[in-house]
Structure formats: C-alpha cells, structure tokens
Amino acid sequence: MARLDVLFEGYATEAGVAGTVSLIRDERVVAIVDPGMVPSRAAILGPLAEFGVSPADVTDVILSHHHPDHTVNIALFGEVPIHDHWATYQRDQWTSRAAEGVHLSPGIRLLETPGHTLQDITTLVDLDDGVAALTHLWMQRGSPGSGLDTDPDLVSAHRSRILDVATLIVPGHGPAFRVMK
After folding, report:
1. DSSP secondary structure string, 61-87?
2. What is the sign, positive or negative, of the torsion defined by CA atoms of 85, 90, 96, 99?
3. What is the DSSP letter of 55?
4. Scanning 79, 107, 120, 163, which has the fewest C-beta atoms within 10 Å of its C-beta?
5. What is the pLDDT at residue 170?
C-alpha cells in the first residue's frame, strides 16, 4: 500500500491563500501533489525533510489544476515528470495523454474530475485503511464549492463519483477528513 503525508495544510482566508501540499510514496514513486502557494518554501521543504525525503528524491509532481496556488513551487523538484489532466511534461518534452485511469504506481492513480476548472484531476491513493482522494472538488470539509468553480454541476457529479471510492478526502485548501458512509 502507498503512504500519504500532508506536508502543508492549505487555507483560503481573507489573510491569504495557500494550497494543501502532499507527499505520496509507493514502490519507486515519490510524488508531490500541488506544490503551490505557501507562506514560505520552508513550509514544504521542512516537513519533507522530516519525512526523510529530499527534493532530489522526488520522482513525480502531480497538479490537480493549473492555478498558481497549486503550482507556483514546481521548480523545487527539478526535472521530474509533471502530471496534469492531459499530458506529462519533463524538460522540453510534452507527452499528451488523458489523465483518466493513469497509474503512476500500483497504489497511485489519476482521475479526470473537471468542475472547479475544466482541467481538474483527482489523485487516488490506496492506503492500508482505504482510499484517499487528493482533490479540489472540495476546498475544505463541508464547503459547497469554492465560489470560483467553472461548473458547479460537474463538481457535484464528480464528488459523487469520488465518494463512491474514497474513505479520506484531502481537499485543496483545508485539513483532510474521513468520508462518512
């Protein structure tokens, strides 16, 4: 089973905006999800070091979507593949592919979940005690949406899809929460 650790718990307040940044490890994959806006780069690098991982150990970066609050610190992780909704990017190579059903490892897979933006993806992680969904379908627990969603109906439809499989939601801007079934 894969291991998931939240490096930085995001927020969206009048005082500022920061995205949730996560670390996933499964077999040979060491992935960072949404290395975006945080108070300082130390807010990502410090917790990463506490888990015994250096930026050079990271093998992949996954972007839920292309807003700066989820992307601005990509360069911390060198020239690794970057995964989004329609391609993988590495150095000067753009390899087109749909994200739906892509497996980065046996325990890490991508799903296309447009709604917040039309380019959103959710990362599913198989854990010992269930499935985690790292997603921007929720900004935080209980949020009806971000108020900035491109298509609220798609958000609702994809939330239902994710709730069918996930036991843990890691939202784009708040603490993780368990799914009550």
Report:
1. EE-SSS-GGGTTTGGGGTT--EE-SSE
2. negative
3. G
4. 79
5. 98
